[in-house]
Amino acid sequence: MKAKLIIAAAVLTLSATASAQNTMTPLIQSVLIETCSHAQDDDRLSLNKTLKANRLSKQRAVDKVVCNGKTLVNFARSANADKVVAMLEPYEQRSKGKVSISDIVAP
């Protein structure tokens, strides 16, 4: 009887933990919606203000923000938001990483 109770409590705890991780606070949700809206509207000044007001760097926004299943830059590209794409492309290039190979010849 105690074993069944312990197993049931463990299952409830795990399911509550999993659902808590998937929830989003209203503040975060509104910031994400505002960020995606500015990107879609090609309003780079408002996007910049929103990012600064919420202490979100452009690099982190490019790496982490997802709008309709697309990265922020790809979402702006699909909306033909050329100004926003031009502003965020350098940060997208940084996140891809650069590798250079050079030959070293001993004297």
Short description:
With 107 residues, this protein is mostly helical. The chain has six helices and two strands, in the order ααααββαα.
Describe the protein in words:
This protein has 107 residues and is mainly α. Helices cover 70% and strands 4% of the residues. It has 6 helices and 2 strands, in the order H-H-H-H-E-E-H-H. It has helices at residues 2-22, 26-40, 44-53, 58-64, 72-78, 82-96, and strands at residues 66-67, 70-71. Strand 1 and strand 2 (70-71) form a beta hairpin. Helix 2 runs antiparallel to helix 3 (44-53) and helix 5 packs antiparallel against helix 6.
Chain-wise SSE layout:
Blueprint: H1 2-22, H2 26-40, H3 44-53, H4 58-64, E1 66-67, E2 70-71, H5 72-78, H6 82-96
The end-to-end span amounts to: 79 Å
| Rg (CA only) | 21 Å
Sequence stretches where pLDDT stays below 50 over 5 or more residues: 3-20
Overall mean pLDDT stands at: 80
Total strand segments:
2
Side-by-side strand order of the widest sheet: 1-2
Count of runs of 4 or more consecutive helical residues: 6
What brief labels describe this structure?
107 residues; mainly alpha; 6 helices; 2 strands; elongated
